[in-house]
Design a protein that fits this description.
Layout (H helix, E strand, L loop, with lengths): L7 E14 L2 E14 L14 H8 L7 E6 L2 E2 L5 H11 L15 H11 L4 H8 L5
Antiparallel strand pairs: 1-2, 1-3, 3-4
GO molecular function, one term: ATP hydrolysis activity
InterPro entries: ABC_transporter-like_ATP-bd, P-loop_NTPase
Protein name: ATP-binding cassette domain-containing protein
Length: about 140
């Protein structure tokens, strides 16, 4: 089922992220809250070291917040177990890294389709969506 236009796609409430190195705790995100509705466009800007990448890693399910909650299309991903988070990420989240790491022996199409294959879906069913000329 496709989310309704104008419904909340991303809801972040009071996110805190701390990193510990020995006895030193560095607070990277301090009480971050935001909402993004379906169809909205959001730009996250700030100086180097301000927590932009950390926030995106948390939103993408690649890291967990120290505290706070994240809901993506109504699903709370804040503290999902690793296996459930991996499945959710494969099925629902697309992420392009600043320094992306593609699998070198796969072509572009195969790299794009890889999450579908890992999820047990048939590549043939999705090739038409990726390339309308595929038959």
């Amino acid at each position: 089922m496709k989310p309704l236009a104008g419904s909340i796609a991303v809801e972040v409430r009071h996110i805190v992220k701390d990193f510990r190195l020995g006895d030193t705790i560095t607070n990277v995100l301090k009480d971050v809250s935001l909402q993004v509705k379906q169809g909205e466009f959001l730009s996250i800007m700030g100086p180097s070291g301000s927590g932009k990448s950390t926030l995106l890693y948390i939103l993408g399910g690649l890291d967990s917040p120290t505290s706070g909650s994240i809901r993506l299309n109504g699903t709370d991903i804040s503290h999902l177990e690793d296996e459930k988070m991996s499945r959710f990420r494969r099925q629902k989240i697309g992420f392009v890294f600043q320094f992306y790491n593609l699998i070198p022996n796969l072509n572009v199409e195969e790299n794009i389709m890889l999450p579908l294959l890992l999820d047990g879906r048939k590549m043939k069913d999705y090739k038409k969506k990726l390339n309308p000329n595929y038959s």
